[in-house]
Amino acid sequence: MNIALCGYMGSGKSSVGKSLAFKLGYEYIDTDEYIEKSFGMSIPKIFDTIGEAGFRSAETEALMHLSNRKRTVFSLGGGSLISPENRDILLKYATIVYLEVPFETCYNRICEGADRPIVNAKTKEELLQHYNQRLAIYEQSADYRVNGSGSISTTVDNILRLSIARN
Ligand code: S3P
Q1: In this predicted model, what pLDDT tens digit does every residue of 90-107 receive, in sequence order?
Q2: I want to staple 141 with a disulfide (CB 3.0 to 4.6 A). Which of 17, 81, 88, 104 is the partner?
Q3: DSSP SS3 for 37
Q4: Probe ligand 1: pick from 116, 128, 131, 133, max atoms within 8 Å of CB?
């Protein structure tokens, strides 16, 4: 079974995903990087060129293209599960794990870069509201929730303890 990590921007999906894939001997795919490669553009450039709606369609297309992967850990963009269609596509080939990380931790991480158009367009208060809305989506969509507020290796161990890779 494949594993797809979801969670808010800055929740550590990429770092945890890489380490988890390494430990399991799985492949690793970051869906944002996959989209960037297929467009030959960065995420901010994609947002500038085709808008958020275009990016969301690209996410759906990427999730469909990736459906033949085996023994792969995916880290999803923070908004990938907004669309129930994406969740349905993913659930056919991956177990979805939600990395639960407090807002302040995510906020401190995402403030460092300028590579997230959603963050650049919002104040801290707006982001907190956005985080709370997203939380509900992650909770509804995920098969499992794990505490992602500790170190990368602790979070990876929390996921390994679920024993989903053996299913
Ligand atoms: C987004 C999260 C980003 C990226 C895009 C939109 C979102 O991914 O897909 O900037 O809507 O939450 P990360 O969660 O990996 O930062």
Answers
A1: 999 999 999 999 999 999
A2: 81
A3: helix
A4: 116
